[in-house]
Design a protein that fits this description.
Length: about 200
């Protein structure tokens, strides 16, 4: 399935590093689509519809798809005329810490989450790949804007929210999170983390 994304044929363009909250909190944002038109109302939410998601699981690994607003506008078209990937946001996650947004011949962002300087912090390395080498100044300018945009969205929206949640957790002794039915991928991710931790404790 990952081979079908054509990553091996893509070209490296840029890499960014972003500090964030605990890796599990940070990773939650990569495995759901419900927050897109709320947290990202003025950014990703202008392109994608929130709280609508289709997902497949392959053991602990997942594939998520959520519709663009262009797909919503095509409701009246015959099935043969509807688009595929151009009308969907597709994210593949490789448990426990990798997210691949894109693939299939479009610019792609591979996010890897790593431990940070303390248990309540992580660092994310965003690697940007392009299907064809960037040859013109115009292409470079457009790709630079995309890279800057995605870094800003993750840093100033996802991780800003995550760091606020992290601070709230630090102010109380314990506590649980309740995931809703519209968060199946988050549920699956945390079940796998808990299962593996229990197995490690038994060894």
């Amino acid at each position: 399935m990952l081979d079908s994304l054509g990553l091996a044929e893509m070209h490296f363009y840029a890499e960014r590093e972003i500090p964030g909250p605990n890796w599990k909190l940070a990773y939650d944002g990569y495995v759901d689509g419900y927050h897109l038109d709320k947290l990202h109302r003025q950014t990703l939410g202008t392109r994608y519809i929130g709280n609508v998601i289709a997902a497949d699981a392959f053991g602990p690994h997942q594939r998520l798809a959520f519709p663009t607003r262009a797909l919503d506008e095509r409701k009246g078209e015959s099935e043969g005329r509807r688009g595929g990937w151009p009308d969907l946001g597709v994210v593949h996650t490789v448990f426990p810490h990798v997210s691949v947004a894109g693939g299939g011949g479009v610019p792609t962002m591979v996010s890897q989450l790593f431990p940070g300087p303390a248990p309540d912090r992580s660092r994310t390395v965003q690697t940007h790949l392009v299907p064809n080498p960037i040859e013109t100044q115009e292409e470079r300018g457009a790709m630079d804007r995309t890279v800057d945009f995605l870094e800003k969205v993750v840093r100033d929206e996802d991780y800003k929210m995550g760091l606020g949640i992290q601070a709230a957790l630090a102010s109380q002794a314990g506590g649980d999170f309740l995931f809703g039915r519209n968060e199946p991928c988050n549920q699956r991710f945390h079940r796998w983390v808990e299962q593996l931790l229990r197995e490690a404790e038994r060894r």
